[in-house]
């Protein structure tokens, strides 16, 4: 039996090493920019960079021309020095939109230059109003249909918005005023939006003054956003920065964002529309970002999360002069889940509230939502955090009869400027905490550390438990993990089972007896 245990432990180490080697993150797997064999300049299509001439038609014609190179390796559309006023225009596949360092694309303040489109199916309406919404300034909406005849491309493939730190300025102040005065006819547009797209690189650009959100990829995969600066006025209403929405294999790296609402917000659809559409946001890597927001949250999950959010890894997060550092937000009627999140190596300075988990946040698109559609938030780990000049450590407020579980905090030190005794507020949550100052709520000592989620060892736990189950039948539905009749199938049937059954297995009577026997024989 001793030999068997040693073999199993070696298998566990092998599995863990394999996962570690594969788990370097999507950011390190991204490819360099595609070299285009053809190039055109926007001035060849009559564009004038004087900041006054409207160049919408020039951009549209240039993109239409570039389509002819789709089967020839694609083309680069070069935007030289100048101020290029334009309305909304579509991009195409196999395109590099390259901005010179002194080039500025300016969004028109004439609403008629921003056509309207149908609401996203996972939202059911625009972000501001029911019905149609204004199309984004630079848009990749539904372009997959154009290339369906090319069998090996099922999604939009392009490199968008690269350059030598050129600028895209949405001139959003007029839209903010229309929002405040309730004079919008349709929901505000974003600066950059791609729908059902893939293989996108957005790099070395500055985004200014978005009417609503700056970068909004939705239903997309294999997206890299790198070396980006985003700025909007601190009082600009709901101007989010980067919003991965029902996306997968997504990397955000080396970015600086200062906006009026949430700097980075991971979303996946709204209420019954998001539930029906059923596309989660998953496998998202966020690394080395500097975030600031006076009225919102630096890093947000939700509140539109009805399609689900999972497998998110955040490292080297720098937050300063912000209202909330990290927030998880949802409400009754959302359904969906937020789970398997790891956030580590965080620096916060001058932040009102470091952490916020809430089940009472967010409006509904209409009255068709199901109040019994309860969201799930679980398996969230936040570790290695240093905060200075923090007003309050955190509020963790789950939903009655639907608590947030396996919330794990470790190695956190916050310099609090208010009464330490009121620094944490908790209700309807459970989890684990270790080496956290100020001391968190007792609710966060109700779980074992085995329930804490780690992307590095998640697959290893799943595989190890299934290996062990071949030798020692266990039952995840019984408290002692002993199955009266032996179970011959895998014990960890889904991700949800892994942590619970592994923890119970390692504490079960047969396993404790085996390890005790092994120790005594030594």
Automatic annotation (TrEMBL):
Keyword Metal-binding carried by entry: no
Keywords (A to Z) from UniProt: Glycosidase, Hydrolase, Signal
GO MF annotations in UniProt: polygalacturonase activity
Alphabetical list of SUPFAM superfamilies matching this protein: Pectin lyase-like
Coiled coil: none
Signal peptide annotation: 1-16
Keyword Iron tagged: no
GO BP term, pick one: carbohydrate metabolic process
Family: Belongs to the glycosyl hydrolase 28 family.
Identification of the protein by name: Glycosyl hydrolases family 28
Originating species: Musa troglodytarum
């Amino acid at each position: 039996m001793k030999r068997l245990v040693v073999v199993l432990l070696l298998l566990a180490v092998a599995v863990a090493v394999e996962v570690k080697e594969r788990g370097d993150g999507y950011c390190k797997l991204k490819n360099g920019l595609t070299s285009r064999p053809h190039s055109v300049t926007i001035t060849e299509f009559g564009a004038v960079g004087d900041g006054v001439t409207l160049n919408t038609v020039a951009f549209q014609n240039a993109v239409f021309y570039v389509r002819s190179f789709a089967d020839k390796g694609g083309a680069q559309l070069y935007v030289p020095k100048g101020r290029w006023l334009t309305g909304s225009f579509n991009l195409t596949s196999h395109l590099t939109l390259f901005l010179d360092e002194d080039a500025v694309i300016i969004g028109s303040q004439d609403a008629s230059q921003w056509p309207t489109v149908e609401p996203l199916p996972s939202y059911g309406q625009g972000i501001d109003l029911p019905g149609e919404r204004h199309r984004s300034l630079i848009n990749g909406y539904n372009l997959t249909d154009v290339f369906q005849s090319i069998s090996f491309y099922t999604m939009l493939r392009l490199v968008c918005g690269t350059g030598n730190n050129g600028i895209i300025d949405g001139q959003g102040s007029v839209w903010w005023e229309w929002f405040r005065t309730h004079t919008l006819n349709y929901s505000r547009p974003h600066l950059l939006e791609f729908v059902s797209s893939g293989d996108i690189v957005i790099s070395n650009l500055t985004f200014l003054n978005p009417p609503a959100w700056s970068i909004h990829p939705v239903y997309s995969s294999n997206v890299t956003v790198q070396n980006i600066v985003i700025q909007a006025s601190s009082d600009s209403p709901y101007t989010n920065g980067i919003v991965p929405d029902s996306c997968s294999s997504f990397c955000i790296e080396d970015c600086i964002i200062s906006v009026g609402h949430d700097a980075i917000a991971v979303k996946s659809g709204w209420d019954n529309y998001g539930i029906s559409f059923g596309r989660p946001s998953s496998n998202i890597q966020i690394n080395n970002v500097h975030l600031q927001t006076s009225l919102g949250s630096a890093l947000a999950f939700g509140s539109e999360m009805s399609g689900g959010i999972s497998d998110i890894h955040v490292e080297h997060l720098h937050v300063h002069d912000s209202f909330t550092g990290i927030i998880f937000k949802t409400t009754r009627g959302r359904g969906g889940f937020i789970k398997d999140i790891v956030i580590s190596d965080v620096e916060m300075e001058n932040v009102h509230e470091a952490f916020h988990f809430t089940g009472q946040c967010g409006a509904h698109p209409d009255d068709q939502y199901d109040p019994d559609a309860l969201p799930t938030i679980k398996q969230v780990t936040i570790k290695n955090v240093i905060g200075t000049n923090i007003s309050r450590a955190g509020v963790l407020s789950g939903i009655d009869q639907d608590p947030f579980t396996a919330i794990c905090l470790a190695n956190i030190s916050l310099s609090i400027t208010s009464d330490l005794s009121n620094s944490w507020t908790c209700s309807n949550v459970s989890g684990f905490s270790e080496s956290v100052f100020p001391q968190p709520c007792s609710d966060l000592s109700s779980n074992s550390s085995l329930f804490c989620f780690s992307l590095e060892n998640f697959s290893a736990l799943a595989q190890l438990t299934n290996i062990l189950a071949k030798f020692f039948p266990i039952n995840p539905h019984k408290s002692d993990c002993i199955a009266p009749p032996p179970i011959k199938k895998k014990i960890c049937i889904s991700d949800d089972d892994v942590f619970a059954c592994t923890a119970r297995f390692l504490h079960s009577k047969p396993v404790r007896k085996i390890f005790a026997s092994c120790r005594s024989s030594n």
